[in-house]
Amino acid sequence: MNLRAVAAFDDNYIWWWQEGSDVVVVDPGEATPVLDLLHATQTHLRAILVTHHHPDHVGGVAILRERFGCPVWGPARETIPEPFEPVFAGVSFSLLGQTVEVMDVPGHTAGHVAYFLPHATPHPLLFCGDTLFSGGCGRLFEGTPAQMLASLSQLCALPDDTQICCAHEYTLSNLKFALAVEPENAALQTYQAQCQQRRAEQLPTLPALLALEREINPFLRIQHESVRQAVQRHAGLSPASDDARLFGALRQWKNEFK
Ligand code: ZN
Ligand code: FE
Fold it and tell me: How far is the CA of 131 from the centre of ligand 1 (A)?
């Protein structure tokens, strides 16, 4: 399998997954970068996967479908360009010889889904749209902190070596915030230096490795004392606050962080 992060707009990635001359793209917010790469690589678009309804994820769907007549899979509970094959948690299907498992991950939007490829080689792959980012998570536009926390917990339970294909290059700004939460986290400091190097070379910081995200992403670490204490201090919450309350305060802190 050949995996690529195709840059779109300012900081979106359209994930491109290729087997031989067949290609699947995830969240094509615009058609042009996909059309250009299909042309350059002499490949064929076979399917489109959509994680949620935002324009920067679906803007290119209609053009690509019209051009290639390929099927589109998308979240059953959201409005995306018709026609599409509606999917939800528990559905699995086969694409380019891979099993694709659908997960419901509400929080950023109400019907957001993620696509997990458990047998991808060399590592399992997750296409998670705007739910999980490296070092961060999506904003809560349509969901509650409790929903997003439950969604991230599901993703966090995937295999250690899962490669996380996030839909935006937000890593460096996320890590700046993560270090404000956990200034002493050595793994976070090391990772920030690596990511700065990659961005200096104009390379994507993604996909991210799940095992590392568990060590550095504060939104996956609400159970850790260092994160709990930092949030309690910042938001003036009592140590008895439950996880969802702390998670909501952490997300709010990030929203206001400069
Ligand atoms: Zn979005
Ligand atoms: Fe987005």
Answer: 8
Q: What is the pLDDT along the chain (258 residues), one digit of tens a residue?
A: 899 999 999 999 999 999 999 999 999 999 999 999 999 999 999 999 999 999 999 999 999 999 999 999 999 999 999 999 999 999 999 999 999 999 999 999 999 999 999 999 999 999 999 999 999 999 999 999 999 999 999 999 999 999 999 999 999 999 999 999 999 999 999 999 999 999 999 999 999 999 999 999 999 999 999 999 999 999 999 999 999 999 999 999 999 999
CATH code at position 149: 3.60.15.10
Q: How many domains does the chain have?
A: 1
Q: Is the previous residue joined to 122 through a cis bond, with omega within 30 degrees of 0?
A: yes
6: containing domain: 2-256
The pTM score is 0.98
Residues with CB under 5 A from ligand 1 (ion): 54, 130
Tell how far the Cα of 31 is from the centroid of ligand 1, in angstroms. Answer: 17
Write b or e for each residue in 89-101: b if 16 or more Cβ atoms lie within 10 A of its Cβ, otherwise e: eebeeebbebebb
